[in-house]
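re: that complex we talked abt at group meeting.

here r the seqs, copy pasted straight from the sheet so there may be weird spacing, ignore it
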Amino acid sequence: MSLIQLKPQTAPAASGKSHLKQATQGHRFDAELVAVTKRYGTGPAAVADISLRIPRGSYCCLLGPSGCGKSTTLRMLAGHEDVSEGAILIHGEEVTHKLPVDRGTSMMFQDYALFPHLSCLDNVAFSLKVRGVATRERRAQARQYLELVQMDHLADRLPNQLSGGQQQRVALARSLITRPKVLLLDEPLSALDPFLRVKMRSELKRIQKELGISFIHVTHSQDEALALSDMIVVMNDAKIMQAAPVREVFETPTNAFVARFLGGQNVLNSNGREVSVRTDRCRLGHATGLRSVEGQIAMIEYQGNIVRITLQTPLGDEMTVLQSDTDYFAQNPQIGDTAMMSWQASDEHILAPT
Amino acid sequence: MATRKRKRPLSFYVLATLLGGYAIFLYAPMACVYVLSFQGPQGGMSFPMVGWSTHWFEVLFQGTGGQGVGDIPAAFRRSIRMAVIVAVLSMIISVAAGMAYRRKFPGANLVFYSAIASMVLPGIFVGFGIALTFNLLGWRVNWFTSGIGAQLTWTLPFGMLIMFIVLGRFNPAYEEAATDLGANARQRFWMVIVPIILPGIIAITMASLTSSYEEIARTQLNVGTGNTMPMEITGLLTAATSPVIFAVGTITTFVSFSLVIASLLVMTRLAKRRSSRTAQ
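got the structure back, here u go
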């Protein structure tokens, strides 16, 4: 199968391995939000004055609790929601008031929204049909995209005859056949069982790398965001808390919300400042030169190669220690024991006040 | 299975008896009508049967064969013609109204309640009112003006209610997906919405067809010259003294069942056509 045919129309072939990538168009960012606000009626803004730049060919996750405005942001990018203030750019071109089909975006819906009366093949061919492409040609093209998502063997099935994972593959093919510059995914994995979720997320990443276009993926799952993202945008309360490469967001969260929401960090007070310390850099026990806090062991979760120990401090805060199984069995702490949790001062990361 | 073997509770037998009694009450009298319609030429309007024949059907189809029997075939044609037009109009208006009600517009509630209220208005007065208004304005009542209008006041509220429910359950993501894939408003409607709500559209059409066919309260004063079927039968009930009326009953039932079976066949064929696309 020739993937050159499947990459976006705007991409002329380049040499070497980069032949799958989006070619230079003079734009630096695949998608940009400039001071975008969304208001419904007179209430508080659903999205309040956010600005964001998504570099070319990125897998970007919008992460946040429900109601934080991440889905609204995605829908504004797609053109399914009007923008109250601000501007949206795709490939450096303003699309704020353009129709969804003229933006170069394509959206994959949370419940896939596959047309129940059409076979998989005709679902994928739908965008060609509305453009007046002849039956034979559009079905041939649709079959290629079904091959890309490994669903060509079920091309004649109706959506309700497919499993959740299969439906998702078809929905992906249906979005990709429009050759989008940016693919928008609204909680695409939330309807799948955990095993399939992990399988499909690597599939999404594979296809994104193959096509070289940007994927913007809304999720409330930290694991998903960490596993997939080149760039994570953490949102809360209609605002962006942090937008940065995944490692930066994980290792140096800007504030306590990001640290807590992404997990893997203990948020604590040290010398009057709010700091975060990675849970895997904390240990049970105390030694000179280490900073420490005392607490009672509230929970021990054995997870095979690591053990997660939760301490409750006298102030009621919960602290987590991730220990290797060898350390854990050497110390053998019990639930209810009083214990010290300690860390090195150099592992502290100072948080901005929220 | 374990659940099958469990002893049935008393309530099962009580409810089963009730259902059985209901079925007998519903169908036994009609069975009498069907049997009596094959009464011999010398027979009367009640049992016992004096031989068997199709004499009364022949009388019926000859038009003015018996005492008090009008031109039934002509009345049937009038009723069917009107029912088909009313069904098509109800279907189109209901779908249009259903689509309109997917967004809020000023006065939406008022329009909705006034449409629904005509369900509870006493039909005979609605019919009387329409006839009176036509009279006041100096217009002649006619089957294709006041007649169809009067019947629409009866079929439309049901059609619209069905459509509100069907479209209320319609997932807007289908439309958004279609928009996203480049469909314009017309393509969205014909290629996505209509195929998905097709069973509802067929249901409205069939319901309007049958309720127009058997409507009398609103129709009788507004249909102008020429009786419809229900009017003819009401006439028969008061005037006829022969088993012709039973023959009418048998034929009417046959027509109704044919309609129901035809629409079921259409539905199953639609369903089959969908599943036949399934690769083996």
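couple things i noticed - Chain A has a mean pLDDT of 87. The CA atoms of residues 76 and 82 of chain A lie 6 Å apart.
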